[in-house]
Design brief:
The relative contact order is 0.06. This protein has helices at about 5-10, 10-15, 25-30, 35-45, 55-75, 80-95, 105-115, 135-145, 150-160, 195-200, 215-220, 240-285. Helix 4 packs across helix 5. The chain contains twelve helices and no strands. The protein is elongated and about 155 Å long. Helices cover about 60% and strands about 0% of the residues.
Length: about 290
């Protein structure tokens, strides 16, 4: 007889069925159709785990629930079996999280839940998981042992200690562009010195507007005063003749080139004497 038939015939069995106690039938069917990332988001909404990205306890809870549902999906469980599995996982995890139950007592709770699955013992009342086969029950026991009880001390420590808050800050330095009124500097490969840039490349400052009365003052300064005597322009070269110019040029040339001529003449005489001495030596050797 199936679990649904037992639930209809015996009201005590109906209350003992662990399927759809935590997850409803609609939620279970929807979870079976999702991938792991979407499944995690759905469980986060169901159990209101909004701070899982910063709270370690919520993050571990969401991770454990997601792992259990995904494992059940990989085992090919139907919605009733998956919901029953999640009820067991949820109750055992809540014993650690909320009641801080020790490992031995929680193992006893798990043993009591798994009783009644074996058909060889009809006198043992089912705890509400009789829709599982013996092979499935062994796989569930192995999974819960490796996922929960092997890490039991770690879960106990996490749920009994307050998480330390860490404030992480980052300093950012932002460079603001120069005003549009200033020209941008040239690229580095075209860079020049500051004085060269300021003298020949930089845009000159705008010419200030003329001040009222400045033109009148300037015109007054440019107008010669009547009282000042005018100085006639005198050209000193107008009265010079060609002979005078030639005489001036010859005198300047003698002053500048006279010493040079004497030096050249002295060097020529010295070379001439050296050559004569060499010739005399040659004649003496020949004799």
């Amino acid at each position: 007889m199936e679990a649904s038939d037992c639930a209809k015939d015996d009201p005590d069995d109906e209350t003992a069925v662990l399927a759809f106690k935590v997850l409803s039938e609609e939620q279970t069917k929807k979870l079976l159709t999702l991938e792991v990332e979407d499944m995690q988001k759905e469980l986060c909404e169901i159990f209101k785990l909004k701070n899982y990205s910063t709270d370690l306890q919520e993050a571990s809870t969401l991770d454990y629930y997601t792992g259990a549902v995904w494992w059940g999906k990989e085992q090919g469980l139907n919605p009733q079996q998956l919901s029953g599995l999640f009820t067991v996982v949820y109750n055992l995890f809540e014993n650690v999280k909320e009641q801080h139950m020790n490992k031995v007592d929680n193992l006893k709770e798990f043993k009591a839940v798994m009783m009644g699955i074996e058909p060889e013992y009809p006198d043992v009342k089912s705890a509400g998981l009789d829709f599982f086969s013996v092979a499935q029950a062994k796989a569930i026991a192995q999974y819960i042992n490796t996922s929960l009880f092997q890490h039991y001390n770690l879960y106990q420590f996490m749920f009994t200690h307050t998480q330390a808050e860490e404030i992480i800050g980052t300093d950012l330095s932002i460079e603001v562009a120069k005003p549009s009124t200033l020209p941008f500097p040239p690229p580095l490969h075209e860079g020049v010195q500051d004085d060269m840039y300021a003298s020949f490349i930089a845009t000159p400052p705008p010419t200030p507007p003329p001040v009222e009365g400045a033109e009148d003052t300037k015109s007054d300064q440019e107008t010669p005063k009547e009282d000042e005597p005018t100085v006639p322009d005198i050209d000193a070269f107008n009265d010079l003749t060609v002979d005078d110019v030639r005489e001036v040029i010859e005198s300047v040339a003698k002053e500048m080139l006279g010493g040079l001529q004497n030096d050249l003449a002295a060097k020529l005489r010295e070379k001439e004497n050296n050559i004569i001495q060499r010739i005399n030596k040659i004649h003496k050797v020949a004799e």
